[in-house]
Amino acid sequence: MNVKDIKKVAVLGGGGMIGSCWALNFLWKGYPAHIFDINEEALQNARNRIAAGFDFLVKRNILTADKAHVAMGLAKYTTDLAEAVADVQFIQEASPERYEVKQALLAEVDRHAPAEAIFASSTSGLLITEIAKGSAHPERCLGAHPYNPPHLIPLVEIGKGEKTSEAAVETAVAFYKALGKEPVVLRKEALGFIANRLSVALYREAVDLVVRGVCSVEDVDKCVTFGPGLRYGLMGPNMIYHLAGGPFGLKGVMHHIGPTVEWWWEDMADWKKWPENWLEAAHEGVLQEMANRPPEQGRTSEEIARWRDDGLLALLRFHGKL
Ligand SMILES: NC(=O)c1ccc[n+]([C@@H]2O[C@H](COP(=O)([O-])OP(=O)(O)OC[C@H]3O[C@@H](n4cnc5c(N)ncnc54)[C@H](O)[C@@H]3O)[C@@H](O)[C@H]2O)c1
């Protein structure tokens, strides 16, 4: 199947955080979308989140109100999985992060969807081989991991299972590019894909610094936000080190600080289980951080998410992505 053959998509788990943003993204780019979830309450969540997302895009002059209205009219909401996938060419799965849920969904998709329809799982890092293991069509199954919020963040990590076909990967890559995304295909299967492995490597150290008493939760976030985070919005760690080396580039900076970094690594967190009591401490710390924020940047999760989305729009513009 070619990307031009993709005329209609389905989003499974469309009422969730990720599914609703995927649906918004597909509708925004002109694809009719069947939005499936397990009950009416979840579908109402989808309607509310999608409407709020379009409202934001209109208020920020990304879309006219007329275009948003037309796009929202391309959505069909259903709790009937057979109806959701019967005549679609691309299926974005965004159900809970459990093998048994995703495997059961794929089994139902096998029964009701066209055999060539691509099944793209939003999994944050489960193995695609395992998700597809009972499937009659494992060749159509791949990972398509977005970053939250998927309609604004361009990265989609494409993961292959043992039986994923190259044709499915190529079509998925072309499809996400057509949506304006930045797909990255993993060369081999890896739990957690690339970006989440990097993300939790940083987070392990962040938790450890707090547990060790070096700093507060708020200080960790301040260090990332006003330090490396500003650069991470523009470039990755390799390029950052390369620029730090001036005329000598990455080799120069590693020659300079490389040996002492090995001392730090010796001292840094390498635990494999979350430390006891960290969750309560992290939760309290982040609530404190929220209370200390400048009020004009929002203090509730909803307000802060909207402020974040404005920042993302500015960065996307800077990257030429809007
Ligand atoms: N939250 C994130 O930041 C994030 C980022 C990237 C990827 N993901 C991945 O996206 C997927 C969804 O995560 P989320 O955060 O949106 O979760 P969520 O809990 O917000 O949404 C899950 C949705 O799936 C629905 N659901 C429950 N059982 C289902 C079933 N049997 N079939 C279909 N739908 C079902 C729920 O009703 C809910 O609407 C997960 O695989 C997660 O790892 C999450």
Question: Could you outline the blueprint of secondary structure elements for this entry?
Answer:
Layout: E1 9-12, H1 17-28, E2 33-36, H2 40-59, H3 65-72, E3 75-78, H4 81-85, E4 90-93, H5 99-112, E5 118-121, H6 128-131, E6 141-146, E7 155-160, H7 166-178, E8 182-185, H8 195-211, H9 217-226, H10 228-232, H11 237-244, H12 249-267, H13 278-292, H14 301-318
Parallel strand pairs: 1-2, 1-4, 2-3, 4-5, 5-6, 7-8
Antiparallel strand pairs: 6-7
Nicotinamide-adenine-dinucleotide binds at residues 12-13, 15-19, 37-38, 42, 94-97, 101, 105, 122-124, 145-146, 148.
Question: Overview of this structure, please?
Answer:
This protein folds into 2 domains: 183 residues, 3-Layer(aba) Sandwich (Rossmann fold), CATH 3.40.50.720; 123 residues, N-(1-d-carboxylethyl)-l-norvaline Dehydrogenase, domain 2. Helix 1 packs across helix 2 and helix 11 packs across helix 12. It has an 8-stranded mixed sheet, sandwiched between helices. The protein contains 14 helices and 8 strands. The relative contact order is 0.09. The chain is 52% helix and 11% strand. It starts with 8 loop residues before the first strand and ends with a helix. Helix 6 links the parallel strand 5 and strand 6. With 322 residues, the chain is α/β, with parallel strands linked by helices. The site of nicotinamide-adenine-dinucleotide (NAD) has 22 residues, from helix 1, helix 5 and strand 6.
